[in-house]
Protein backbone atom coordinates (compact mmCIF):
# COMPACT_ATOMS: atom_id res chain seq x y z
CA UNK A 1 0.00 0.00 0.00
CA UNK A 2 1.39 3.38 -1.00
CA UNK A 3 0.62 6.72 0.53
CA UNK A 4 1.72 9.86 -1.25
CA UNK A 5 1.92 13.52 -0.36
CA UNK A 6 3.65 16.69 -1.53
CA UNK A 7 5.53 16.65 -4.82
CA UNK A 8 5.11 12.87 -5.24
CA UNK A 9 1.35 12.87 -4.60
CA UNK A 10 -0.64 10.73 -7.04
CA UNK A 11 2.46 9.67 -8.99
CA UNK A 12 1.14 6.25 -9.99
CA UNK A 13 4.02 5.53 -12.38
CA UNK A 14 6.57 6.04 -9.60
CA UNK A 15 4.56 3.78 -7.28
CA UNK A 16 4.39 0.99 -9.86
CA UNK A 17 8.11 1.20 -10.63
CA UNK A 18 9.13 1.23 -6.96
CA UNK A 19 6.95 -1.80 -6.30
CA UNK A 20 8.68 -3.61 -9.20
CA UNK A 21 12.12 -2.75 -7.80
CA UNK A 22 11.18 -4.04 -4.36
CA UNK A 23 9.81 -7.27 -5.81
CA UNK A 24 13.06 -7.81 -7.74
CA UNK A 25 14.97 -7.56 -4.45
CA UNK A 26 12.75 -10.07 -2.61
CA UNK A 27 14.54 -13.21 -3.97
CA UNK A 28 17.78 -11.85 -2.46
CA UNK A 29 16.40 -12.07 1.10
CA UNK A 30 18.24 -15.33 1.86
CA UNK A 31 21.50 -13.92 0.45
CA UNK A 32 21.68 -10.34 1.77
CA UNK A 33 18.75 -10.10 4.18
CA UNK A 34 15.48 -8.22 4.04
CA UNK A 35 15.49 -4.86 2.27
CA UNK A 36 14.57 -2.20 4.83
CA UNK A 37 15.58 0.90 2.92
CA UNK A 38 16.44 1.61 -0.71
CA UNK A 39 17.94 4.85 -2.03
CA UNK A 40 17.80 5.90 -5.67
CA UNK A 41 20.31 8.68 -6.37
CA UNK A 42 19.77 11.34 -9.01
CA UNK A 43 22.09 14.33 -9.65
CA UNK A 44 19.87 16.82 -7.79
CA UNK A 45 17.88 14.62 -5.39
CA UNK A 46 17.51 11.16 -3.85
CA UNK A 47 14.42 9.02 -3.46
CA UNK A 48 14.47 7.11 -0.18
CA UNK A 49 12.12 4.14 -0.10
CA UNK A 50 11.28 2.53 3.24
CA UNK A 51 9.01 -0.45 3.84
CA UNK A 52 7.17 -0.59 7.16
CA UNK A 53 4.69 -3.43 7.50
CA UNK A 54 2.22 -3.21 4.64
CA UNK A 55 3.17 0.41 3.84
CA UNK A 56 5.86 1.75 1.52
CA UNK A 57 7.05 5.31 2.08
CA UNK A 58 8.90 7.32 -0.56
CA UNK A 59 10.68 10.53 0.42
CA UNK A 60 12.31 12.89 -2.05
CA UNK A 61 15.37 14.67 -0.61
CA UNK A 62 17.57 17.26 -2.28
CA UNK A 63 21.27 16.42 -2.43
CA UNK A 64 23.90 18.76 -1.03
CA UNK A 65 25.76 19.76 -4.18
What would a concise description of this structure say?
With about 60 residues, this protein is an alpha+beta fold. It contains 2 helices and 3 strands. The protein has a 3-stranded antiparallel sheet with strand order 1-2-3, with no helix packed on it.
Question: Notable features of this structure?
Answer:
2 helices, single chain, 65 residues, alpha+beta, three-stranded antiparallel beta sheet
Give a topology summary.
Elements: H1 12-25, H2 29-32, E1 37-41, E2 45-52, E3 55-62
Organism: Brugia malayi (Filarial nematode worm)
Protein name: Bm10217, isoform a
- Gross morphology is globular
- Taking all residues together, what is the mean pLDDT? 80
> Radius of gyration over alpha carbons?
12 Å
Total domains: 1
Major sheet description: 3 strands, antiparallel
For the largest sheet, list the strands in their spatial order: 1-2-3
Strand content: 25-35%
Helix/strand order: HHEEE
> Helix count?
2
Spans with pLDDT under 50 lasting ≥5 residues? none
Our measurement of the CA-to-CA distance between the termini, rounded to an integer number of angstroms, reads: 33 Å
Count of distinct strands:
3
Structural class: alpha+beta
The percentage helix is 25-40%
Protein name: Bm10217, isoform a
Amino acid sequence: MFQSDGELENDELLAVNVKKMLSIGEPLVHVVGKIEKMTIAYPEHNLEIVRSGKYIFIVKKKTNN
